[in-house]
Amino acid sequence: MKKFQVVGIGNAMVDVLASCDDDFLSDNGIEKGIMQLTDRERGVELYSRIGPAREVSGGSAANTIAGIAHLGGRSAYVGKVKDDQLGAIFAHDLRAQGVVYDTAMAEPGAEAETGRCIILVTPDGERSMNTYLGVTEFLAPSDIDEGQVAEADWIYLEGYRFDGPQSHAAFAKAIDACTGAGGRVALTLSDPFCVERHRDAFRAMIRDHVDLLFCNRAEILSMYQTDDFDEALTRAGSEVAMVACTDSENGAYVLTGGQRVHVPATKVDVVDATGAGDLFAGAFLWAQAEGMNPEICARAGCIAAGEVISHIGARPETDLKTLFAKHGLHA
Amino acid sequence: MKKFQVVGIGNAMVDVLASCDDDFLSDNGIEKGIMQLTDRERGVELYSRIGPAREVSGGSAANTIAGIAHLGGRSAYVGKVKDDQLGAIFAHDLRAQGVVYDTAMAEPGAEAETGRCIILVTPDGERSMNTYLGVTEFLAPSDIDEGQVAEADWIYLEGYRFDGPQSHAAFAKAIDACTGAGGRVALTLSDPFCVERHRDAFRAMIRDHVDLLFCNRAEILSMYQTDDFDEALTRAGSEVAMVACTDSENGAYVLTGGQRVHVPATKVDVVDATGAGDLFAGAFLWAQAEGMNPEICARAGCIAAGEVISHIGARPETDLKTLFAKHGLHA
């Protein structure tokens, strides 16, 4: 048995969550429902305009890994924060959940701070993200501990991290060390605009290394530059051993071994959509690492996603295993 | 019309909220349901032991003032944070609510940091607070802007702030400037153990300066060193022009002009008791400043307290005026 079921690599962020109406988004030039990168100045400006907020640890892959640890999975995380107050909060929340998190912090002297994401939640529960990457942009190959990723059944790579100058090299190092020791590679496409920025790099990685691809409808359409969801799924299924594609309130599809399985979404009142895809991936990966079949993995994913969108914040607040049992899923 | 209806003075804190069970409290020597002061070392140690947390701006009087601003009241706040990330969060959240907040921040070089309060919420919704005061302990007379408090109908003094070395002098300066310009003084006793620490100072202030006293059952019993709630209420009523005393699920009592009025509590499922007294005081003071009668003030207070204990965090999340209307209170 390897030490870790999953080691995730991604942008280490603290989320700043506030409510607003649709007019606020348009008045401030914020595109609804997606992640947009901001520089520090724009982040500070935007923060001065939003209403009272609350701070919770976030980061897409970090949410996924926290979900795995919440389920009792053995997991570790790699992502860069600074040695500042928000960095301490981020590190605490992962470790307190049982995640091994040892990435060296950027020194207090560094100009950039711990990354943060201003998430504006509109009354429909949709979230619009404004990300100041801060020090997390500088994740480098030296941050990858080859011994650690060699001890993982899976590495889970966050598409957003392709935005960093040295992160492609960091991913390559992690992939080599993990697959060289018999581990497998999962990738999430993160966001349709992220796919737009890195389509070629994603396609090369999918072709050469990825064993399990996480995506949603908009991302896979962008990846294959088509409007035909069925065609995009088929193409992805032909390129990757397993594809798990979410489709909002329509649930999720899993493609593997020439089969396509559909599972319905869990019906909940959407309070804050932040973290839906992250927790889907977390529960799916955990179930996969526990040896469950693809349909069970996807059902666990949908239930976990339903939990996280029924409250504010992107990490689980109720016991997911109890919730699985309530839904008749004895994972 | 004066510029401010209420200027509050208190401990500026960021709350760190986490869930735990009763065993965790006893294993870590935490007394349930009260506020206990910790030094920085103990705060760091405790933080390393608690589960994943979320950060929200807090501080007792700051919550009260935020509630007044939420209701459309004209309010300002005085309390010290440091120029660090948590200090920026605290300042943002007050200003974003419409509160005037101009207290000079402690410089980044200062050894202490922005104060924080680790609040552990048990399954019964009770909160146990562990406060590292940080720089907020050093609120001094120089932090009081006499022109500002002279422009206030009310100043609202937080009992907890009696723990600071120079704060008695700061309070005296604020009282002189406010009452000299025709303003009035409200005081909250904050906590039974706070009363224990400062009984003589509280009694002198009540006798000489206080026009409106906020307290709860445990605090007023401690103040008058009796087990007889009725007697304690009567004594307080004979010393202060108006007393507003909360009694948890039994609602609240208002004593004024020789009359005693009781209003029932608003029935809600308690999720997190943090801020109940703070928001009671906020809505009460706002209604008082708007010229409403004592019963309406207390009813507004109970509805606001009910709102804030029905979710995690000590500041209102739903529109209180809408809630007042729902309860038939046309404040």
Topology:
The structure is a homodimer of 331-residue chains.
Chain A: E1 4-9, E2 13-19, H1 22-27, E3 35-37, H2 40-49, E4 54-57, H3 60-70, E5 75-78, H4 85-96, E6 100-101, E7 115-121, E8 127-132, H5 146-150, E9 152-158, H6 167-180, E10 184-188, H7 192-208, E11 212-216, H8 217-223, H9 229-239, E12 242-246, E13 252-256, E14 259-263, H10 276-289, H11 294-308, H12 320-326
Parallel strand pairs in A: 1-5, 1-9, 2-7, 3-8, 5-6, 9-10, 10-11, 11-12
Antiparallel strand pairs in A: 2-4, 7-8, 12-13, 13-14
Helix pairs in contact in A: 3-10, 7-8, 8-9, 10-11
Please tell me about this protein's structure:
2 copies of one chain form a homodimer. Chain A is α/β, with parallel strands linked by helices. The first copy, chain A, has a single domain, classed as UDP-N-acetylmuramoyl-L-alanine:D-glutamate ligase, CATH 3.40.1190.20. Helix content of chain A is 39%, strand content 21%. Chain A is built from 12 helices and 14 strands. In chain A, the strands form 2 sheets. A 9-stranded mixed β-sheet of chain A has the order 6-5-1-9-10-11-12-13-14, sandwiched between helices. In chain A, strand 7 and strand 8 form a beta hairpin. The longest helix of chain A is centred in the middle third of the chain and has 17 residues. The two termini of chain A are 20 Å apart.
